[in-house]
Amino acid sequence: VPNQSLAGLFANLGLPYLLLMGAATLLLGALLRDLEQRRATECALAASEARLRAITAAIPDLVFVVDEDGRYLEVITRQEDLLAAPPAQVIGRRFEEVLPAGPAAVLREALAQALASPERTCARYALDTPAGRREFQAWIQAIDAPIGGRRAAAILVQDITANVESEERIRRLAYYDPLTELPNRRLLVERLGHAIATNARTGLHGALMFIDLDDFKNINDLLGHHNGDLLLREAGARLRGVVRESDTVARLGGDEFVVLLELLAESADEALLAARQVADKLLEQLGRPYRLDGLDRKCTASLGLVIFNGHEHTADELMQRADLSMYEAKRSGKNTARVFDPHMRTELADRLALEAELRGALGTGAFLIHLQPQLDAGGRLIGAEALLRWNRIGCGMAPPGLFIPLAEQAGLMPALGREAMALACEELARWAELPGATGLVMAVNISAAQLYEPGFVEEVLALLARTGAPAERLKLELTESLLLTDIERAIEAMTRLREMGIRFSIDDFGTGYSSLGYLQRLPLDELKIDRAFVRDLPANASSLAIVRTIMALAATLRIRVIAEGVETSAQHACLLDNGCDAFQGFLFARPEPVETFRARLAAGAARESSTETRVGADPCR
Predict the structure, then answer these.
(1) Bridge partners of 72?
(2) What is the mean pLDDT of residues 444-454?
(3) For the chain, which residues make up each domain, given as ranges?
(4) Cβ distance 311 to 200 under 8 Å?
(5) d(CA 134, CA 129)
(6) Taking Cα atoms as reference points, which of 248, 319, 332, 335 lies closest to residue 285?
(7) How many other CB atoms sit within 10 Å of the CB of residue 141?
(8) 511 with 480: CB under 8 angstroms?
(9) Which residues pair with 135 in a beta bridge?
(10) Between 225-242 and 216-223, two packed helices, what is the crossing angle to 10 degrees?
(11) Which residue ranges run through the membrane (predicted)?
C-alpha cells in the first residue's frame, strides 16, 4: 500500500513482526560485541606474541622449539654466527641433518629424557661455528601443549665457551707450573698415587727421580730473574724431551724438578737399570750449555733416584727418599746421580726425628745465644754478633751446622730467627746496666723468609718496645743473595726500620753479585767481607783483589767494612793495610756465652777504667 505511513505499515503487520525485529536487533548487537572482543583478543595476543618475540630475541642465548622427532620448528637468536647453519636451513630439519653426529646424539638423548619427565634436562656439547670452536650448554623443557598434533620441547642453548676457558685456566693454575707449564707438586702427587696403585695391580716397578740444578742460584743472581726463568723453561723442555709421553716431568718450585717413570719392568734390577739409563740421559741434557745473554752458561744437576713397586711406600715417603738421594748426590760432588739405599733410610729417620725435636724445642727456652766480639781497627770493642745455639736435652749444645740446614729445609728459619732476635734484644737491653757496654752494637742475622714475612717490621718494633732495647744499637745482617730475591720489598722493609734507627749490614758480601745500582738504593751501614775471601789472605791474589774491590765499593757508598773469619795475624795485617774498618774472628775471640761476654766487659772496664775496652786474645781459641 504505497500511501500508507510507516507507522500504519507496522500497525498492519502486528505484534509478531515487532517481536521478530527486536530479537534480530539484539542478536546483531551481540554479534557485533563478540566480533569486537575477538578483535581485541587477537590484537592483545598479537601484541603479547610480539613482546615475547622481542624479549626472546633480546636473550643473548639461542632459543629453539623442536618436535618429538628433534625437528626444528622455530629458531630465535641474535647471534646467527653461533648456529651450525643459517636459520632458514635449520627449520624443518632434524638434529642429525643439521649437527655433527656427536652433538646430535647428545641432544637426541637429552630430548628423550625431557619428554619423559616433567623436569628439564641439561646437555653439554662442542660445535664448530662461523665464530670458531664453541662450547654450549642446552636446557631442554617439554611444552605442555602439542604443536601440530605432535609433542614438542623448548631448548635454551647458552654459549659457555668463556666459562669453560676460565675453568681451564683455573685448572691449569691449580695443577700446572705457570713458568714451565709442567705439572706442579699437586698433580705430581696425584699421578704418583695412581702409579703406585697401577704398579701394585700389574706387578711392575716404577722410578721416581728428584733433580736439583747445581748452579742455578749463582746464574739467577748474576744474570737476573729473566735469564733464570729462561734457564728453568729450557731445563724443563730438555727433561720432557728425554722421557716417554706416558711419564711425568714436574716442577716443584725454584730449581727443583721431579721425573716419574711408570711401568718399567717386573724385576727391580731391570727397572733400576732402565731408570739409570734415563737418569744418565737427563743429566747429559741438563749439562749442555744454556744460551743466556748471548753467552753459553753451564748449569749441571744432581739427581736422586728411588725404585718403587706397589703399596710398599706412600707418595710422601718416596718423595723424601728421592730428595735424600739427591742431597747425597750433591754431597758427592754434584753433576751425578745417587740411588736410595738402606743407609740413607737410617739417615732419613734420624733427620725426621731431629726435625721433630727441633720443632718441639721452639718456644721452650732450649735456644740461647753466644756472642762473638767485633773490634775496630784500633782493637777496641764495638759490638758483638749474636749466634743462635740449641741446647738439646740430654745431648748438650748442638752445633749450628747440625740444625741450621735442617731448619732451612723444614721452613723453620723464620721461627728460629724470631728466637734469635728476641734473645739478642733482651741481652741488648741488659747492656744498659753493664759497665763497658756503652755504645756497643748487637748484630743479628735475619733470613730471607723472615724479612719477607708479612708484619716483620711491626714485629721487630714491638720486640724493641717490649724489651726496651735501643733501636740505634741493633744491627741486622742480611745475606747478599737475599736482597736480590725481591729488591723492592727489601728496600721498603729496610727503609722503615732504618727510620727507627736500626742499622743494616750485608753479610757474606762478595758471594751474591750485587750491583752498585742495587747497593746505592739500600739503607746500608756496613759491608761484611765473607770468610771465604779472608781465608786465603794475603797469599791469594784473587782474594786480595776481591777485598780491595769491596773496600773501593764501600768507599764509594761511604759505608764501613767489617771482615769475618779473621784467624791469623797475617790476615789481620793485610786487611788493616787495605783499609778494613772492623774485624771478627777466632784471632780475637770465639763465640762465647753471654755470661762470659758480660764478665769480659766488667773485667775490661775495671782494668782500663774507660768506656773503650780492648779485647785480648781468647785463651780458648
Answers:
(1) 66
(2) 83
(3) 6-53, 59-165, 176-340, 367-534+559-568+579-608
(4) yes
(5) 7
(6) 335
(7) 16
(8) yes
(9) 126
(10) 140
(11) 6-32
Pairing state between β 205-213 and 441-446: unpaired
Residue 452 to residues 414, 493, 494: CA-CA distances in angstroms?
10, 8, 11
107-137 residue pLDDT tens: 899 899 989 888 889 989 888 888 788 888 8
- 3-state helix vs strand vs coil in the chain, percent to 5: 50, 25, 25
CA dihedral 223, 225, 230, 235 (to 10 degrees): 90
596-613, pLDDT tens digit by residue?
Answer: 999 988 887 666 654 444
What does the block give as the cell for 278? 734415563
The whole-number pLDDT of residue 258 equals 97
Share of the chain above pLDDT 70, in %: 86
What is the band of 193 on the pLDDT scale with cuts at 50, 70, 90?
very high
Coil/strand/helix, residue 210: strand
CATH of 59-165 among 2.30.30.30, 3.30.450.20, 3.40.50.740, 3.10.20.310:
3.30.450.20
Closest residue by Cα to residue 574 from 595, 599, 545:
545
Beta partners for 156?
Answer: 63, 139
Distance of CA 383 to the CA centre of its chain: 40
Distance CA 61, CA 138 (A): 10
Structure confidence by residue, pLDDT tens digits, 384-402? 999 999 999 888 898 888 8
CB-based contacts of 614: which residues, under 8 Å, 6+ apart? 379, 380, 381, 604, 608
Q: What whole-number distance in Å separates Cα of residue 502 and Cα of residue 397?
A: 30
Residue closest to 108 by CA, chosen among 66, 73, 168, 150: 66
Q: CB neighbours (10 Å) of residue 34?
A: 10
What is the architecture, at CATH level 2, of domain 367-534+559-568+579-608? Alpha-Beta Barrel (3.20)
Per-residue pLDDT of 514-552, as tens digits, reads 556 677 888 999 999 988 889 989 998 888 998 998 899
Q: Which residues contact 457 (CB under 8 A, 6 or more apart)?
A: 493, 496, 497
Query: CA-to-CA distance for 192 and 167, rounded, in angstroms?
Result: 24
Maximum separation of any 2 CA atoms in the chain, in Å = 164
- Cα distances from 471 to residues 419, 424, 443, 463, in angstroms, run 18, 12, 11, 10
* CATH superfamily label, 176-340: Reverse transcriptase/Diguanylate cyclase domain (3.30.70.270)
Buried b (16+ CB within 10 A) or exposed e, 503-542: bbbbbbbbbbbbeeebbebbebbbbbbbbebbeebbeeee
Name the one residue in this structure whose C-alpha cell is 721452639: 362
DSSP code of 614? B
CA 318-320-322 angle, to 5 degrees, is 70
H or E element that contains 320: helix 315-331
How many CB atoms sit inside 10 A of residue 156's CB?
16
Model pLDDT, residue 58? 53
- pTM beyond 0.70: the answer is no
> Could you count the other beta carbons within 10 Å of the beta carbon of residue 608?
12
Question: Which set of grid coordinates corresponds to residue 364?
Answer: 721452650
CA distance 447 to 388: 13
